[in-house]
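Example 4.3 (complexes with small molecules)
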Amino acid sequence: MRTPDDLTALFRANQLKVTPQRLAVFEALHGDDTHPTAEVVHARVRERMPTVSLRTVYQALNDLVDLGEVRAVSVDNGAVRFDPNNSGHDHFVCRDCGRVSDVTASRPRLVAATGGEVLDEGYTVDTSEIIFRGRCAACNA
Amino acid sequence: MRTPDDLTALFRANQLKVTPQRLAVFEALHGDDTHPTAEVVHARVRERMPTVSLRTVYQALNDLVDLGEVRAVSVDNGAVRFDPNNSGHDHFVCRDCGRVSDVTASRPRLVAATGGEVLDEGYTVDTSEIIFRGRCAACNA
DNA sequence: ACACAATCAACAAGCTTTGTTGACTACCTC
DNA sequence: GAGGTAGTCAACAAAGCTTGTTGATTGTGT
Ligand SMILES: [Mn+2]
Ligand SMILES: [Mn+2]
Ligand SMILES: [Zn+2]
Ligand SMILES: [Zn+2]
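Answer. The structure with manganese (II) ion bound is encoded below.
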């Protein structure tokens, strides 16, 4: 995700108005590597702007996702987590505390379809996400 | 997932009764590689037993997951999909039709934590799941 | 200054999954 | 075979997350 200033320009270029609420979401997410849910972002924003609604936070987050600035990460089937780090990286999820950490992994190679049919040229692979699961250092101690 | 016969023995060994409803879920899932949701399994079961409730299907599926016979696959944040194939494999999700296909991929190696802190010995990695996204052959044609 | 996008509050509703309750059924064990 | 108990059913309710709505108000961009 770019800086709040750059996002301001980007939003305007896409006919999206830059409101104080949206700016607060930009700032709440900027440099964050904890993969917060919308609720968490909402709480963070409300510390400075107590009247912002959860609905508005969802809208700003969805705009950021639509613009490709933020990744929506589904790590379980609870709430979606939002990730302002859009450089290629993967995730480690702790079974105990649920914390999601950024990790770097070797790119997997898709070898073949398993179901009998061979993976033919017709397939197009755009992206690959890896989720490692286990126990983090804090929970292992 | 084992055969319905083996599952019968397994369920009994775990003090779980083998009812016709559970047997129908076993059979609906046996050899299936389409990663159906609970709703889909329910519909399939009701073709033969019209009175089975969705609640009962969820219970049977959760029992199978708890026993490690079925994998619960979260590929987006819609409904969970159930996978009777518990041999190590990964998944390809078509952006267009949503179909989930089994694939084989090279095991990724976790290289390092990204956040600055080095991935130390304290971490324990149990499993890794890979999701490839793109377009399947049918949707590319 | 103006048009119109965005926000707010306050709910409602969709979707998936689980909980509940009371009556009834049938599986497993002895 | 009989009995204890787990399972099932119907029929809802409810939790949790996300999106929709509505009407009034604010404020952004040009
Ligand atoms: Mn991340
Ligand atoms: Mn599979
Ligand atoms: Zn942990
Ligand atoms: Zn497709």
